[in-house]
Amino acid sequence: MLRFFREYGASCPDELGLMAAMLTLPDGNTVVGIAGCYSGDLDAGEAALRPLRSFGSPVADLFRTMPYTEVKKMLDWWAAPQQQHYWKSSFMREMDDAALDAMVHFVNRKPSPACAVVLEFMHGAMQRVAADATAFAHRGARHSFLMLGQWASQAQTENGLCWAREFWEAMRPCLGAGVYVNYLSEAEGEERIRGAYGVNYGRLVKLKKKYDPTNFFHINQNIGASKVAA
Hints:
Layout: H1 2-9, E1 16-24, E2 30-38, H2 42-53, H3 68-71, E3 84-91, H4 97-107, E4 116-121, E5 143-151, H5 157-171, H6 190-197, H7 201-211
Antiparallel strand pairs: 1-2, 1-4, 3-5, 4-5
Helix pairs in contact: 4-5
C-alpha cells in the first residue's frame, strides 16, 4: 500500500492533497490508510481518485463530497486530550523501500495503540515557488515524515521514548536536514530551527533584530534576536 502511495502521488494533479498513515483504529485494528482531499471539479476528482479507490481490497472507502471543515475533523478521535506526546519529523531525502520497511517494522512493535506514522505528500503549486520567496524554504521536498509517539500515562513514557528514538535512528539515513517548523518540539535545539528555515534563516535573523530586538515574540520555535546570521 505504501509503495502504491509513493507511485500514485507522482502523477496526481495539483488539486489533490495526499497523505498516508499507519495507525490503530478505535476498534483495535492497525491499518494503512490513504487520505486525500480533491479541491476542484467533482467529476475530475472522481477520475483522479479512481486508481486509489480500486487498489487492493480496502476495508473502508470514506471518500465523498464534504465541506473542508469536515475533512479537518476526521482524525479528531486520534488527537484525544490528556495524552503524553513525543513527536519527531523531517522531510525525506528518499522514500525508498528500506524506509518503508523500517516504518512497517516499528509500527508493528509500537508500545501504544495511539502511536502512529504519517507521510505527507508535497507537490503542486507549493513547489513552483522560489525557495527564498517566503520563510518556508523546502520547496523541493516530496514527502514529510512524522513519527507520532502518543500514550495515555506517564508510566508508559520510558517505553514510548525508547521506541521513538530507535525508530528515529532507523529512519535517519532516509531523512534530510529540513523539517516543517510547526512539527518541532521545544527541546530540539537551534540546529533543528535552522534546518526548518534552511537558506532563509540568516535573513530571518536580520528581520528579527530589526523588528523584535527585545524578543517579545519568543514562544514556539524562536529565532532569537541575539543570533548571528549564518
